[in-house]
Design brief:
Blueprint (H helix, E strand, L loop, with lengths): L1 E6 L16 E2 L2 E2 H9 L5 E5 L4 H5 L4 E3 L10 H9 L8 E6 L9 H9 L4 E6 L2 E2 L5 E3 L6 H6 L5 H5 L4 E5 L11 H14 L1
Parallel strand pairs: 1-4, 1-6, 4-5, 7-10
Antiparallel strand pairs: 2-3, 6-9, 7-8, 7-9
Length: 194
């Protein structure tokens, strides 16, 4: 089964330290927009969150804070935690950050079609790789704790030891709300499209 892990555990530094996933966008929390795109594409879903866990749990999905050894170590902390938490029936895992409400509705199917014998399928746009939106074999999560324990912190550094296939996407689907100005642009874009 293909599952998804919504990454909402960041510190939101570029947005003044607020919980990005909880920022309002068109009348609902930002993360809910991402869930609405992901949910039809997968058979199982969980949320990685270190704040407002009850609010995220109101979505009906499991919420995992970063395990104690990995706290403060960025998005890989979510993957290290997931290594011990993803159910055995989830053999493939799609990751997605909570601030990308325009993700393609065919994200998972296109990455899956390209995966082949690789460990990971990663979207690439004209702006470069999108390492927070990976489709990966759940079995490779087992290597994340050792990578972090060895001092590694970047997703790209961890990916360097895996077989990765890149899949070209249009960059518009990966627009994110990294700061207040970007969130305002997304609000205008979505409101205008509606």
């Amino acid at each position: 089964m293909i599952g998804a892990l919504l990454l909402a555990g960041g510190e939101g530094r570029r947005m003044g330290g607020v919980d990005k996933g909880m920022q309002p966008l068109c009348g609902q929390p930002l993360y809910r927009h991402v869930l609405q795109v992901l949910q039809p594409q997968v058979g199982w879903l969980a949320i990685s969150a270190n704040r407002h866990q009850d609010d995220y749990a109101a979505s009906g999905y499991a919420v995992w804070p970063d395990a104690a050894p990995w706290q403060g170590m960025g998005p890989l902390a979510a993957l290290a935690t997931a290594a011990a938490s993803v159910p055995a029936h989830v053999t493939l895992l799609q990751t997605a950050p909570c601030d990308t409400p325009l993700l393609p509705p065919d994200l998972v199917s296109r990455l899956l079609a390209a995966l082949g014998e690789a460990d990971v399928a990663m979207p690439v746009t004209a702006q470069g790789p999108q390492p927070a939106c990976l489709l990966l074999r759940a079995s490779v999560l087992a290597g994340v704790p050792a990578y972090l324990a060895g001092g590694g912190r970047s997703i790209r550094g961890w990916l360097a030891g895996l077989r990765v296939v890149e899949v070209v996407f249009d960059e518009a689907g990966f627009a994110n709300a990294n700061d207040a100005a970007a969130l305002a642009r997304l609000e205008a874009l979505i409101s205008g499209a509606g």
